[in-house]
Design goal:
Elements (H helix, E strand, L loop, with lengths): L1 H13 L3 H8 L15 H8 L1 H24 L4 H16 L12 H11 L1 H18 L2 H19 L4 H14 L1 H9 L13
Helix pairs in contact: 1-4, 1-5, 2-4, 3-4, 4-5, 4-6, 5-6, 5-9, 6-7, 6-8, 7-8, 8-9
């Protein structure tokens, strides 16, 4: 019962879209209508600048992390705890408060994984940074980080594996268009020199 309650709480927390809220507060364009039209940190960087994007990134990571941490505090463990991480990610992708049209869930997913296992979460973040630095493809970095986190978590705690596999599948599904563009060689690279601070 506890796992169900905290999964619902995680979903509601995940449904709070910090990209949309941040751009509204800063009076910047709605990230759902500009750039890639994705309400996430990468697109906020395009429409509102680095500082706003960093804030959104941290807030989105915290959504997943706090949801799992709260559940842990109340004794949720094993697969139930990983379901909480999945709930937060589902909330970000299908937010109740925004017509079930949200972001791609990467930062919230990594936050949830951080809550499950700090080492795996940090490792996933480092994989993202390294992959993005080498390829300048945020989408590819996201996919590689989430896939490897799924592999790592299997060795840390097998009871987490199925829900984290669900997170991986959800993030992969949200990146289907990016995957097609990566294969075609048309996925746009990040160009930080053209982004305002």
């Amino acid at each position: 019962m506890g796992a169900i309650i905290f999964t619902v709480i995680a979903y509601l927390l995940g449904s709070v879209n910090t990209a949309i809220i941040t751009c509204k507060v800063l009076k910047c364009p709605d990230p759902r209508t500009e750039g890639s039209k994705n309400p996430g940190a990468t697109n906020v960087m395009r429409v509102a600048g680095r500082k706003a994007a960093i804030f959104v990134l941290i807030a989105d990571v915290l959504k997943g992390f706090i949801a799992v941490l709260l559940a842990k505090m109340f004794g949720v463990s094993g697969m139930g705890l990983a379901l909480v991480a999945l709930g937060a990610t589902v909330g970000h992708v299908f937010p109740l408060f925004y017509g079930f049209e949200g972001g791609k869930g990467v930062a919230t997913a990594i936050g949830g994984i951080l809550g499950l296992n700090l080492f795996v979460g940090i490792l996933a973040g480092l994989v993202w940074i390294i992959t993005a630095g080498v390829t300048r493809l945020a989408s590819l970095a996201s996919l590689v980080a989430i896939i490897l986190a799924n592999v790592f978590i299997l060795f840390v705690n097998p009871s987490y594996f199925i829900p984290v596999l669900g997170i991986t599948a959800l993030v992969g599904w949200r990146h289907m268009q990016n995957i097609a563009r990566i294969r075609a060689g048309t996925e746009p690279q990040m160009d930080l020199s053209k982004i305002k601070s």
